[in-house]
């Protein structure tokens, strides 16, 4: 995973970015929106949440109170047009997306919209056309849709492997998308719109072509299915290039959250989602093997650890605290290494000399 | 790994942190230091690099030029005392650490010092004592040492498992620390001081006790060893509680970077470092199993993807660009899902209706 | 795998079997048939090949010459009726099976017939009816069809897990069946009849119900496909109980031989074929895990090693040879253990005292 | 594992073996001995147990009663010299081995002696010398010691990989040997003599050189250890060529039976014992990977299944039964394949036409 991240999902280094932080308004601070506020505040460099908006004013107040410099703007459209807002993150219910995204385009504000873009294809196409018009005028694009799997290090590594020709031409994709449980109102249609939609985007992302046809099969339902609903579903995609994708969508497994994707190509296959990094099948019959990569050096293996270390050091320093190994740990390591070097020289067991703490 | 991160290595959420960014001086901008500058600039929330210092002025100028608002301060001690510097990150060669860390303590500046803390145990103990005196006066601590493995999600998960009693009392630890290659001046002593030092800290971190004795054995050296040096080494630690640790340190494997740690306890064992998350051995003979965790839901599985998504969105927005799936991707997904819902209802293969792009 | 073998695929122990060896005629000694002759001769207890028959007389002579006591009978029907033949193994081309199996039934000889039983369903049904009539008269059955996967330890373990209710009710099965390459005459129809036929039997074996409908989809073919043929295929089965099975059949992967089966049930799933034993997904969201079993003791872990050890000892003894660790190895082990016990007592490194060989 | 078996641990095919079965006497029919009787009777080709002997006459009678043609000979030395006995398998307590093996040598009978060969190095050396004298006279060897791991397919694959130079020169070996539990009389010395003795032989087998020195360390004992005993132990071997081996021996893990061996060489490493076949680490830093082999074709993947299939067919036929898929299964497969071929041609879902059973 570390390897994947390095090879394919790396963050930009010292990019050409203006010094001032991006001032973000977050619309909708339910579970996803509140998570994003927290994320921007505590983990994202170069951005601040300056405004939040939510139909439940109390929830908005509560979230804003935890972020220095963040205020509540009741009307989401007012938040979009506010002069102190550079960019907008939309996490409101899907039925509000169309109006809000269009407002962002109208006012030239970059927008990250959680899926779905809108509630149907026609209105989504309207947004495409509106942004195209804006781009024609300005040369800039504004809309990003929250298909986050494209940023997952494993998916990014799989995409990079395909693009590098490592699997030859992809022919088939096998997907599984499993949730432990869903709320009692979750219908089979929602399985398509809320769950399988991710495999729709993954298919388009990995194969770089459109989906031309869909078939949905209903196997015998689990006894844990929402009453009257078909769960699991077996969904088939055919792409414009004749490739096929099968998707098991199963939202009442009772177990955990499993998302698996295997791409089968002319020259090998690759599987992600077994929580063990990308597993590649390759070779010829005399040396066929299943393999997973090893990081080339410590920057790849421990790059994530360095990020977390520094973030925690910064956070602690801002609080006037220390959060990590301290001077005593540095001293103890020196004392043990000194004994180690002595042991190396003498070939003998060497006791560590250490002061009492 | 995602699971690990969530369970054990999570970043603080909406912590009680002052609004102003932490202003950091980075001393030493060789490979590690420059990496840290880049990291703070592009991935760390709430901090800015405001000053860099390096014995090679040209290198310092070059790094500073890439970070808005960052200046060069030639004298590292001047950087430490500068009023615009809140905290210091030391990545200079080890022989300068003692003086620089002591200066940080004297001026009450939080400091993250790359290992080693100093060049020998006595001077490290001097720092411990100096910080203790400062803490006695102020109630605050200042020194963090850069043992980054403690922040690695796998190590954090292993530590959490031990602390939760999941392995019973730990008895033995098996470690392997392998590099593909080292520079021609790398001696066996450096294997102890620069490589095995990480296993020293890991041992202390995981077992929560000190190392009492060290033995270093020299197996037959590889033909790829630095001339005259013993590589691999087999190092044994005994802790004050009688636990034992064996460490294979092998720095010329020619392969990749492998760091593996297995803790064997009274009630099971756990292994990290096979690039497949933590693998736990548990159960009784009638149902003994090797297992690895599955994320409970999408926030754990894709938490990292969300972080990367937002960071890239922010970075792109600041550059006036879009970097991710766009409106067309949102439209295409809607069009396919509409066909999917129709296919679900009809039970038939359904073609996707989509406008030409 | 050892665990699997023990739990589910174990051979009978000290069964109630007559003392005299079973005298077997093998019809057809091409690749499969010759393999079976060799197998019976060198690895199977309680049986001898007493006759072989093949359309190529020379091939039959050659095989018979290597097995003491084995003769050639040109006419396969004469071999079936021969008084010295207790049982018949049919490995002739499929078009001869019907007549040969019916002859076995007529003469009351147990028969193991390689798949296909016959060339079409009607003639296979004829054999069912003929055997039923024989069974009605005698109470005995005679026909076994060579679907060998049922005897594979992994499949046997998977079946046992399902039967024990470990997955709850099975709902979906995902299969992949991949060959590196096939001969130039191999058609897509042969992919169904010769390859997918194994998934047909696996489905019926694992789910204990019949297949009610089949769909065959043709994804974009690989450039390595036999000219004009569709490869890979995506085959769907629906069972009489509404369960569904998807099968990727891909016979020109260029890689190796991969056969994978995953059963998804109401209460968990299990996957075989990643060459790492059965991997089970189970638990609830707070502790969901992927796990594989560990042998309870050495008899399971090394049962196969004991079998091979004894077979090689017997074979060597019959040749007047020794094939395995000898007295010197026993001596060396004693000498090292003596030093080990001394080292245990003294706590010191102890040199091994050993005579020169 | 299948791959391993094929590549390295294969049984001899059509070897030059006399037609008559080897007549074996088994001395000692406790757990191991009775297992071996059963194994020879039900799974080994070309051998019969004709005599058993045990200090507990009742146990001997009971075992003999289950094997046609097997009689009890009270005096083990009489069994060795019996004219109807071709070869001897010794599974008596170790203190009887010396006399029994010497008797076998005296009478020119091939003998498979369970470890230990004798109770001390001196008496084992006596056997070496006695067999050497016999060999000098006859050109034949007689003694095999029951170090069965050499026959385990994974160990055989590891040995083959080393011998083929796949790891370069081996430098270090890491071993773990874990039992769930041992009887209450099991001492730390027995851990050396009965458990670690296998790693002694594995070391000598894999590295092809002798062990020159042993060190035994005693980590903090588990609370589950036999009272007063040190468990686990950490045992170190140095070989005559300067290679080193560390062995964790832990006999009260409470979990399962785990035997793991990793060989670290100049050009890569290989690990067995994670129940997922041999895992090899190789490549250079730009493409370092952990990999496991895939069978080249079905004979490797399902070779074991064919063996079990035939053994069960033979056993069932001798009992007048059928034990495996029958004619109906052959018919059902034909009916489904016919529908499959129709579905392939039509591109449509095709119902399977099948008679009622």
Automatic annotation (TrEMBL), chains A, B, C, D:
Organism of this sequence: Blastococcus deserti
Q: What is this protein called?
A: Inositol 2-dehydrogenase
Source domain of life: Bacteria
Broad class of enzyme this protein falls into: oxidoreductase
What is catalyzed by this enzyme? myo-inositol + NAD(+) = scyllo-inosose + NADH + H(+)
Q: Which residues form the signal peptide?
A: none
Q: Where are the transmembrane segments?
A: none
The segment(s) forming the Gfo/Idh/MocA-like oxidoreductase N-terminal domain are 22-130
Among Pfam families, the record links this protein to: GFO_IDH_MocA, GFO_IDH_MocA_C
Entry-linked SUPFAM superfamilies: Glyceraldehyde-3-phosphate dehydrogenase-like, C-terminal domain, NAD(P)-binding Rossmann-fold domains
Keyword annotations for this protein? NAD, Oxidoreductase
The entry describes its oligomerization and partners as: Homotetramer.
What does this protein do, in the record's words? Involved in the oxidation of myo-inositol (MI) to 2-keto-myo-inositol (2KMI or 2-inosose).
| Gfo/Idh/MocA-like oxidoreductase C-terminal domain sequence ranges | 159-350
Q: Which family does it belong to?
A: Belongs to the Gfo/Idh/MocA family.
Known EC number: 1.1.1.18
Q: Which InterPro entries match?
A: Gfo-Idh-MocA_inositol_DH, Gfo/Idh/MocA-like_OxRdtase_C, Gfo/Idh/MocA-like_OxRdtase_N, MI/DCI_dehydrogenase, NAD(P)-bd_dom_sf
